[in-house]
């Protein structure tokens, strides 16, 4: 049955329109063949419109859905389970699962201990702080997090970011206490930022960092971190504080004659070779992944023993020296809640927190997709935030999900977050019992371990795929990469975000338009460039606009349509074809229009009227038709110029052509 | 004839695909009925892709088109005509046209003289500078500009902007020379910015200021300007320098007991009443527009004469006092090309230049549309820029197109830019001969003239239309308005741009998706919300994605599709309908996809495979199909799952339903 165009207006004006439309209703059955007019959805009230928009923006996942029609006690339990997923999966926990978690937990513990010590150096913090951060945060996450595969702890990129941003404020060598106080402050605010983003359901903000930008940023950060390790690897005492490649290379070559220590290089290089071989084995044969997982710990043990026996530290081989024994001391009183460092801590914390989130969410989603379960981004952010807030009060610095350790966790067969608990227990025992044994661990080993770990962050396969698929995306990737290695981590980040956003805006400013033609023997109209068989309809120009029509592009779209028309008219003059009398604008892809867009359509209409060409619209969407009616553009163009499909419009205005079909 | 999907690959892999596809080609005739597969456009080379993008972004209007196939001398002449359109229209200039231009020129001259004096006070500059700016710039524009209706000179909003921004740097009362030097510097850089934007074809940048934002900004600026006039209108000597409404109202009421001057108020109020009545008459009867056009000059003459006779200036009525006689002195040597004010001048000039451009281009486009000729935005910018550069060297401040005077120019029957020449000549004669006569003009009259002029900038009809059409647009409008009146002009501008961009980004982050249903007795599939007649196909869920799939929305789109599926499955369980086996994603509106988007599709595919639901794509556009192939997603999903239309896909997977049609 044909549907009325009118939306049942109240004023006399609309009444007339509705009477007219019922007239047309009768004709339209004849005109359109199938008898459908363009539907106008019922107008929503302002409140409904607003609440729908809020719901779709902030509650896209419909979080309260499962609470429908449940008794109160059940609701409370479900609510608790929402905050502490452990209450859910804990009930079905079994010995079989624990076996998997135990092995995975032990494996990632062996990997995390040397990494933690190395990463804390990257953040200019004492080595035990790295270990602290692998004890408390994983325990909190195990109770609150929803990922089963993520391995929590300090990570290379965030450590580097924190280290460079904080040392701009306080010198960690001359003022170690103030520096660590500032680090705890930043950690606190990183947690607050993360939890707030999740709580206020603003998690979509991190999606403004595109995949391409992350690939470039990570690769740049990996190279920067590897370059920083040249200090420990070559045994250079006076090293630059800057992180860009030019300063670092200058520092490295400037020290070549009297700053390099051959014993250090020998130890570092041989163990780096060992680590890389282990990594290669683990990659070639997935069953031997544990070789690469325990290689770092083995390197630490062997090299520490070696240095202890040969006393190589007396020959200039730098060693870890002292790691404080005992578990995390409280640090809540150390956080700056006032004074000039409050703002700095907040700023640095917010940036580090966002990067931490991006990394953790990406990891969580990757492994969730592999195992086929869902991750709730916002809930995950609350868990990560809480863990960092608690961490900042127990002498930890920013922890998040680690790419390399999560992969090992997954491959070692972890089943639940209990593997994080196992890891935390091992780290606790290490802190309580064996930290003094790390005294003779050479720094070069830690550097080798970090270098071999961060090389995995360079995802050249993704970069190549990005290059193949989208050149502008690749530019964002390259921009982030170059920004990080030639300037600084923050700058690279800024470049990545800027290019990502510019790409969207450019797309919105210069959208595509296409000429449509008829696929012979069908009623289908398609882009003539994509379908060379598609034939143009004589006397009719059909243009499709492939974007929402907004102020940024409304003028361009108007002028582009007029240019299509001009080109076509010239071509038709050359070939002496019939004059164009109708311009059909296919609006299917036009999902929205604003006041500037309607202005542009009005101007297009005027320009066409001067040339005696009729403007016809095909298939406007619900939002577009509603707005065109609100602005009375439908009256201006005439309701009989708006069709359900291009085919309907052609049938009406060029019936001969269609008869030939 | 059916078309092959393969793009003629070279590797063995693609060969297999192409053989498979030729197999399918035979079936597809049977399957699809009409026998068309999704077309893959020939792949462009990197260079072609890049140069096409550059061309579409910067040379959308194809400026070199008219030079094709022409002899060299003709090309040079055309090139000159491009830069100086006067060479084109000048050849056909006639006495008939001059009659129109003369009347229009005289009318706008009578309007501009009092306005210029008033606006220069708004910019804290001596009154003659306003007149200078109505002499040189209009002459340059007449030779270079392409609009026939625009009236060039100082305008209220730019004067206010310049005045507030510059007085933050230098106090115009204590350091008048340095202040005017800075003003010329800003004017110079405003011109450079404008010309550069045009020359480098970056004109589209000004389109980032939406129509809604401009309406709000202009209304806010008008109210701010009117409030500023209370100083002259009430005769207050000590007035605040801030422009926000709170400071101004405080200043006004704080002076109520001893700061107001009743003689001034009497003169101001009576002439404001006269001006408003004249304006009302001009608006009611379009033929009497000249009443409102000459009312300001008449007010100035009468009030000056009145003050001269009564010597009201001795009773506290502030007067203009001294206007320097003679035409523009050179000022090139006054521009700061070095020193600390260079940067300030550049910053202020760039902002003022952009606002000036926005206003001039909007006016130019409006009147060009009314008379049905084209305006070239980029060329126009070069003209405006050159005119301001020359202006800055001849003691002018930033000039642009004035809304009110251009409307009068149009209504007075101007034919070409010669009306600007007439106006400039009158202003020149004024400067040479009669400036001393303005000595006794009361400031209150200038304030009344400005108030009555800027009231026209408050476009409440547009604001109401914006409210009706798009609530978010209205928010941008309101934000700009409130920002300007409660804080400052710059701040309001910033708010306007920020809201405009945020709106686009929000749209890109949370795009619409729709469930499609079949319109009975057709092969058309449409949004079930817009067309309640549309019926869902049992066992098949059809979802349309109404946006490009980018990193900002890829996760949302994936999860939203899964939510549609979940909702539908629940509904079907309740109603005991057949299980959903196919998910058709209609990609017609998806104009582009990036690597994150392809990832999201891969994850969607995995999630569906777990539930034993087949993913089917319908009508991917040229860019999308190319990228899906580059990323080998087409192999993953299977080429036989990609259809030309939803109807084809339904025919294949739910043939029974279609048979019933």
From TrEMBL, chains A, B:
GO cellular component terms, semicolon-separated: membrane
Q: What keywords would UniProt list here?
A: Membrane, Transmembrane, Transmembrane helix, Transport
Lineage: superkingdom: Eukaryota
Q: In which compartments does the protein localize?
A: Membrane
Against Pfam families, the record matches this protein to:
STAS, Sulfate_transp
Sequence ranges assigned to domain STAS in this UniProt record: 530-653
Q: What is the membrane topology noted in the UniProt record heading this document?
A: Multi-pass membrane protein
| InterPro entries per record | S04_transporter_CS (IPR018045), SLC26A/SulP_dom (IPR011547), SLC26A/SulP_fam (IPR001902), STAS_dom (IPR002645), STAS_dom_sf (IPR036513)
PROSITE patterns attached to this UniProt entry: SLC26A, STAS
Main localization (coarse): membrane
Keyword Nucleus annotated: no
Q: Note down the stretches annotated as region Disordered.
A: 1-37
Q: Does the keyword Membrane apply?
A: yes
Residues crossing the lipid bilayer are 150-167, 179-200, 212-240, 260-281, 288-309, 346-370, 382-400, 420-438, 445-467, 479-502
Q: Which molecular function GO terms apply here?
A: secondary active sulfate transmembrane transporter activity
What the entry lists under PANTHER family is as follows: SULFATE TRANSPORTER
Q: What is this protein called?
A: Sulfate transporter 1.2-like
Native organism: Panicum miliaceum
From which lineage does this chain's organism come? Eukaryota, Viridiplantae, Streptophyta, Embryophyta, Tracheophyta
């Amino acid at each position: 049955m044909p549907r009325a165009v009118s939306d049942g207006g109240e004023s006399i004006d609309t009444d007339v329109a509705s009477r007219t439309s019922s007239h047309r209703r009768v004709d339209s059955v004849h005109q359109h063949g199938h008898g459908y007019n363009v539907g106008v959805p019922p107008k929503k009230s302002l409140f409904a419109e607003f609440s729908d928009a809020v719901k779709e923006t902030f509650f896209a996942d419909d979080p309260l859905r499962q609470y429908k029609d449940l008794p109160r006690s059940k609701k409370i339990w479900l609510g608790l389970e929402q905050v502490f997923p452990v209450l859910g999966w804990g009930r079905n926990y079994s010995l079989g699962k624990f076996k998997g978690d135990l092995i995975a937990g032990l494996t990632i513990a062996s990997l995390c201990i040397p990494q933690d010590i190395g990463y804390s150096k990257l953040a200019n913090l004492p080595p035990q702080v790295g270990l602290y951060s692998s004890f408390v945060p994983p325990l909190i996450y195990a109770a609150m997090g929803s990922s089963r595969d993520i391995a929590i702890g300090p990570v290379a990129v965030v450590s580097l970011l924190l280290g460079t941003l904080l040392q701009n404020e306080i010198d960690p060598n001359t003022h170690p206490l103030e520096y660590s106080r500032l680090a705890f402050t930043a950690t606190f605010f990183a947690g607050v930022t993360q939890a707030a983003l999740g709580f206020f359901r603003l998690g979509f903000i991190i999606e403004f960092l595109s995949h391409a930008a992350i690939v470039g940023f990570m690769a740049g950060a990996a190279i920067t971190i590897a370059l920083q390790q040249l200090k420990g690897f070559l045994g250079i005492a006076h090293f630059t504080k800057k992180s860009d490649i030019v300063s670092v290379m200058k520092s490295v070559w400037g020290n070549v004659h009297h700053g390099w220590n051959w014993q250090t290089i020998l130890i570092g290089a041989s163990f780096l070779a060992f680590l890389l071989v282990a990594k290669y084995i683990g990659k070639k044969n997935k069953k031997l992944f544990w070789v690469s997982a325990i290689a770092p710990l083995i390197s630490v043990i062997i090299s520490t023993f070696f240095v202890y026996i040969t006393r190589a530290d007396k020959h200039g081989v730098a060693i870890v020296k002292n790691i404080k024994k005992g578990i995390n001391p409280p640090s809540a009183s150390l956080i700056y809640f006032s004074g000039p460092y409050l703002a700095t801590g907040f700023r640095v914390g917010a940036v580090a927190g966002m990067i931490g989130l991006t990394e953790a969410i990406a990891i969580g989603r990757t492994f969730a997709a592999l195992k086929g379960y869902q991750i709730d981004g916002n809930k995950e952010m609350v868990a990560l935030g809480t863990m960092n807030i608690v961490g900042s009060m127990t002498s930890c610095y920013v922890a998040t999900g680690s790419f390399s350790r999560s992969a090992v966790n997954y491959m070692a067969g972890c089943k639940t977050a209990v593997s994080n608990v196992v890891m935390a227990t091992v780290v606790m025992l290490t802190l309580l019992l064996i930290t003094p044994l790390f005294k003779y661990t050479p720094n070069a080993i830690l550097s080798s371990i970090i270098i071999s770990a961060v090389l995995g962050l360079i995802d050249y396969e993704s970069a190549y795929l990005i290059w193949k698929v989208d050149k502008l995306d690749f530019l964002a990737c390259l921009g982030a990469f170059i920004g990080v290695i030639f300037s600084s981590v923050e700058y690279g980040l800024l470049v990545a975000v800027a290019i990502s956003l510019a790409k969207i805006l450019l797309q919105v400013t210069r959208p595509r338009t296409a000429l449509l033609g008829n696929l012979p023997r069908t009623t289908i109209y398609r882009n003539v460039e994509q379908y060379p068989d598609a034939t143009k309809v004589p006397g009719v120009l059909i243009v499709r606009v492939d974007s929402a029509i907004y102020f940024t592009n409304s003028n361009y779209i108007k002028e582009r349509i007029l240019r299509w028309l001009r080109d076509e008219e010239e071509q038709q003059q050359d070939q002496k074809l019939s004059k164009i009398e109708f311009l059909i604008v296919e609006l299917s892809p036009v999902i929205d229009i604003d006041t500037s867009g309607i202005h542009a359509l009005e101007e297009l209409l005027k320009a066409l009227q001067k040339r005696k060409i009729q403007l016809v619209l095909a298939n406007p969407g619900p939002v577009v038709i509603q707005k065109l009616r609100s602005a009375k553009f439908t009256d201006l163009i005439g309701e009989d110029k708006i069709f359900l499909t291009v085919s309907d419009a052609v049938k009406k205005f060029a019936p001969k052509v269609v008869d030939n079909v």
